[in-house]
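The passage that follows is intended for readers who have already worked through the single-chain material. We present the inputs for a multi-component assembly, then the predicted structure in tokenized form, and finally a short commentary. You are encouraged to pause after the input and sketch how you expect the pieces to fit together before reading on.
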Amino acid sequence: MGIVGAYSTKYELRSEKEAWDMLREVVEGVMKSVEKGVDGSDIDLVIVANFSDRFGGLIHTAPLVASLAKARRAKGLRVENACASGGTAILLAWTLLKSGLARNALVVGFEKMSYQPTASEANEVLSLAAHPDEIVTGASFTSLYALIAKAYMDAYGAREEDLALVAVKNHENGLRNPLAAIRRKVTVEDVMKSPYISWPLKLLDCSPLTDGAVAVILSSEPRKFTDTPVYIRGMALSHDLPGLFERPDITSLIAVRNAAEEALRIAGVEVKDVDVFEVHDAFTIAEIVIYEMLGLARKGEGVKLIREGVTLFTGEKPVNPSGGLKSKGHPVGATGIGMVAELFWQLRGEAGEHQVKGAELGLMENHGGTGSTAVVAVLSR
Amino acid sequence: MGIVGAYSTKYELRSEKEAWDMLREVVEGVMKSVEKGVDGSDIDLVIVANFSDRFGGLIHTAPLVASLAKARRAKGLRVENACASGGTAILLAWTLLKSGLARNALVVGFEKMSYQPTASEANEVLSLAAHPDEIVTGASFTSLYALIAKAYMDAYGAREEDLALVAVKNHENGLRNPLAAIRRKVTVEDVMKSPYISWPLKLLDCSPLTDGAVAVILSSEPRKFTDTPVYIRGMALSHDLPGLFERPDITSLIAVRNAAEEALRIAGVEVKDVDVFEVHDAFTIAEIVIYEMLGLARKGEGVKLIREGVTLFTGEKPVNPSGGLKSKGHPVGATGIGMVAELFWQLRGEAGEHQVKGAELGLMENHGGTGSTAVVAVLSR
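Having made your guess, compare it with the prediction:
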């Protein structure tokens, strides 16, 4: 079971394209990306990931995508697990293919967040993925992650300047990625001077509202379609209690840890073996906590990795060479599939200017809510 | 693999409950419905069906439902296939259980359509499930089904009064079902006098906007949980081209026919063997076309079945003893799961006043859009 093709629109803050245009573009693009050719009749499974129809105005997209691909035999559905929708879609495709229930899957994720006229309205839609008892308080994900940041800073002596380093790194990386939505160098000073959204998180600690779509094709006979497939060696999904208020320790994202442990175990590798990481830096604090949950650092020591440059593009363990959610962007339903597409290119040596040299093993981590769903995959050639 | 428990809220036009209240009610209700007891730790798969977050204001409901069930080990996701979301959720659970990928699944569907302040706004949300090129013309599902009705009437000499008979039958049935949203006797005259929504379809040809939620539990070890499980003997999903304008003959719903043929074949039975049917009468014309697609009547002769009373509660082939979407209601994400719950009760002899006597084999048909997704299941004790 391997990935045989991938295509992404450019991620943009406000795309001129409708969601429907994006679907047409990525379905055509991914079919053409398959070197030995793929026909609609080869596709027997279609999975679409989309956070909300309020971000694009489309419902019932599975038969639409099947029809665009001329996949007349395919069976399809849309899946949603908030910001982990893309990862969930890949996981379901992988699960069904692995079990022989389908042979070739087309997985598409999209989000047109600028469908909402203002950022405030878009953020209101995003907030619906929190616990209902958080929603009624008017909490936003920025305010929820701000609680995590505050707790982490108090517990482990991290400073706002440390969080800023994640933004600096990922924006630096995004400069090398033509797909990235915000290709702009950012300094610690820029981050520190940007306005507070929810203390201690500032504008430049947050990933942007983004439009974009991505598609990949997975096959149980990958060599039929390409000589250089990329394989999912292990993959897992895990949940945590939905409300931050329900958890004993909000400086951990337990679902991320559990999904990572399971995915690595299935793959039969350790995190130290991984050469390149794409992770869910929806907020700068998240990336630091993710380091710890993946086992790249001990509890409370994730902040050292960013201080010491370990996760820089040129560091020992490059994290988010694509620019991550922070610079590349976060078109929610597309995000997890975009990570898989990025690793597909990285592991085939096709990532261009942001290619991590000699990358053989990659890991993607995609989570939803404040980590109540997490999906982790380990990939290699 | 059998169904071991089921619970439904009462379907209502405007429930006082929030979507969140409904989820709590059905999760508690379904857990209690399992005779030998079920524990959260038994549940390892959670699937939620919901048409749109504009009908309830909740996103990321899978971890929420898992948490309500105290199913801490479960893996979950939400699925959407427009009005076939519920059927799709059951199909996915069945598929994963059958393949040994999960053991016990909690499947929940809900929709709070009155979350939209007006019927007009609710209908706008529903319309997003049409083909994008239909949406831009301002088409509603009533207008799209009106095209089907017009084509059917022209081709086969059916009259508006014939369509009305479906409403009369299903409202008569709904009188016997305490869960039904509209328990009111309706005559052909009532239907004929009701205002046109989109000629030839009148208000009483259309299923109502409804609030409701349903949950079922499926198990790969059903006898552990009940002595009287109900089994899914065959089940299938099929798609058609999404746009009515793309299809050679709009008096057929090809996906329904294909899904029914496949489900019956898997079950190893013929449609004539089925004792009780729950089908997707979102509009009266749909039920007549469904008769033909299921093989209960030849093409163009479905209308005879309703004229001759074959599908009455007291007829040879009772269709929609629950009242169907027309009288019981159509809380979209819940609908397909509600059909399965209804057949669970029918086949266990627990359907009370609307029990079809001696029913041993049941069939449910749930479709989305104008039939671009269809799900059919065959069930028995």
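Commentary: The two ends of chain A are 12 Å apart (CA to CA). Chain A has 13 helices and eleven strands. How closely did your sketch match?
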